[in-house]
Amino acid sequence: MTIEAPTIVEGPEDSPISVDGWVLQWTPIVAGALFATALSSILVTFAAAVGLGVSSASPSWRDASVALWLLSGLYLILLALVSFGCGGYIAGRARLPYEMAETGEPEEVEKRDGLHGLSSWALAIVLGAALAALIGTSASKPTALATPAGVTEPSVLSYELDQLFRAPRRAANGDLAPQRAEAGRILMTSSGHDGVSSDDRAYLIQMVTATTGLSGTDAEHRVDNVIADAHKAISRTRAATIILAFSVATALLLGAVAAWTGAAAGGRHRDGMPLPGWMSHANRFHTRRTLWREPATPKV
Question: Are 248 and 76 in contact (CB under 8 A)?
């Protein structure tokens, strides 16, 4: 079996080098992916600064309105279109031109430019996922002051656990971490079809009575209210997670289209070819600047 090497056609010194064959040029792909990753990181940081998000690291965060969900999803889609479109444009614009551009096969050149844009899009996603995993690993790295995993309470129910064990008087050295963790695991079952079982409910009432000093009736009333609040908090968190995942998936798919389109536009600019009609509005400034530089033809 033989492997044919790509043909590199050397032209005059003042003409660009043409490359033939299905060859991925990794320099423009990497450049486009790095640009897309950097731009998306900047835009994500800006969104986090102004409060656009359907989730938060704060355990008491409860603002997850429908308007905020929709606005955050639209922003994610806009972020993907801008960042991946610019990255694809760089991948197509910086790529070495093919010899086909001068032999009457612009459709084939556009397909190959689009392939470089998609490659840049895929590499940007891998880089972004690796960066997010690295940040998550560093944030969750255990330290000497970290709470053991066995006594860690669910962060989504921290406020509800505060309500459950709230007491006017408490011992100075009273450590409620094990009780809070156990109660949190019981409250997590409130989101199931059967809800909190009667045995778990009775155990929570006993735990609240022993910890806070409330009477049986008051402890029972508090446990019922906290179970209802926990169910609402888990439902809202689950809905926010689903909407966030759907928005990210939609944004990434639309980002692939933007990367292909941007690479095709960059390839046309590279080869000096006019843009399609639906892209022509993006080239108006360049056309006006060219017309302004060209000398006017005197009328006879």
Answer: yes
- Asked if the model's pLDDT at residue 9 lies above 50, the reply is no
First CA to last CA across the chain, in angstroms? 67
Closest by alpha carbon to 229, among 218, 221, 57? 221
Q: In this structure, is the dihedral angle defined by the CA atoms of residues 91, 74, 154 and 185, taken in order, positive or negative?
A: negative
Q: Which two tokens stand for residue 295?
A: 């000398």
Q: How confident is the model at residue 177 (pLDDT cuts 50, 70, 90)?
A: confident
Q: Name the 3-class secondary structure at 20.
A: coil
How many other CB atoms sit within 10 Å of the CB of residue 292? 7
**pLDDT band of 164, cuts 50, 70, 90:** confident
pLDDT of residue 155: 74
Higher pLDDT, 146 or 96: 96
- Tokens representing 198 are 């009667």
Query: What type of residue sits at position 75?
Result: Y
Are 36 and 84 in contact by the 8 Å Cβ rule? The answer is: yes
Q: Say if pTM beats, i.e. exceeds, 0.70.
A: no
Domain locations in the chain as residue ranges: 8-135+241-273, 149-167+175-234
Side chain identity at residue 206, one-letter code: Q
Q: How many C-alpha atoms does 67 have within 13 Å on its Cβ side?
A: 2
C-alpha to C-alpha distance for 166 and 125, rounded to whole angstroms: 45
Q: For residue 149, what pLDDT band results from cuts at 50, 70 and 90?
A: very low
Cα–Cα nearest to 112, from 127, 132, 125, 95: 95
What pLDDT, in 10s, does the model give residues 222-251?
A: 998 999 988 888 888 888 788 888 888 999
Closest by alpha carbon to 152, among 166, 169, 140, 167? 140
Strand extents, DSSP E, 5-147: 8-9, 18-19
Q: What is the amino acid identity at position 104? A: G
Rounded to whole angstroms, the Cα distance separating 68 from 148 reads 35
Q: What are phi and psi of 8, to 5 degrees?
A: -110, 120
